[in-house]
Each structure stands twice: as C-alpha cells, then as structure tokens.
Amino acid sequence: MPYLGVSAGAMVAARRALGGGTRVGGMPVCPEDPDEPGRELEVGEGIGLIDASIDVHVAQRGSLSARRASRAAARCGTCGRATAAR
Asked: How far apart are CA 64 and CA 3, in angstroms?
C-alpha cells in the first residue's frame, strides 16, 4: 500500500509517533518552544507502517541531536529518521 505523508503525516506513519515537547524526565533535550516551555516529549501510537520514528523540521527547530537522545529514552524504536525542509 503506497503512503505519502508530509510533516505530521510523515510522523504518524511510524509505530511510535513523536509529538510535541522538549523534555525527557524533566530534563531539556532540545531548545524549548517559548509558547510551550517545559513540556515532556509526547510519544503516541502511530499507524504502524514503519518501525522507525520520524521527526520533521529538525534543522529549523535545532532538535536533531536532542531528538535522537530522547527517542532512545522514550523507546520509540531502534532507529529513526529526521527530515529538514530546504
């Protein structure tokens, strides 16, 4: 079954989908959003097309390395993908 998702549509393709948030266990893991400071990283059920978690807009948000660490802490999967718009 072909599937194309962009931004949030790409993120929900994973078995474990990353949501908002910038903290894991109360510790900041990437720059915080001034509109939502101090939120825990949300990890929810995706539609399960792939095992890897997908994060989008990482270059724009400065969250690439931090999301890798938070993915491991949240047990989102064994590997992940990150995308950045050019």
From this structure: 24
pTM for this one? Answer: 0.61
Number of separate domains in the chain: 1
Indicate whether 42 pLDDT > 80.
yes
Query: Which residue from 57, 84, 53 is spatially nearest to 70, judged by alpha carbons?
Result: 53
pLDDT at 78: 43
Q: Which residue reads 């690439």 in tokens?
A: 64
In a domain, 62, yes or no: yes
Model pLDDT for residues 8-21, shown as the tens digit of each residue: 888 899 998 888 88
- With respect to residue 3, please indicate whether it lies within any of the assigned structural domains: no
Residue indicated by tokens 């101090």: 38
**Beta carbons of 63 and 70 less than 8 angstroms apart:** no
Domain that residue 16 falls in? 8-82
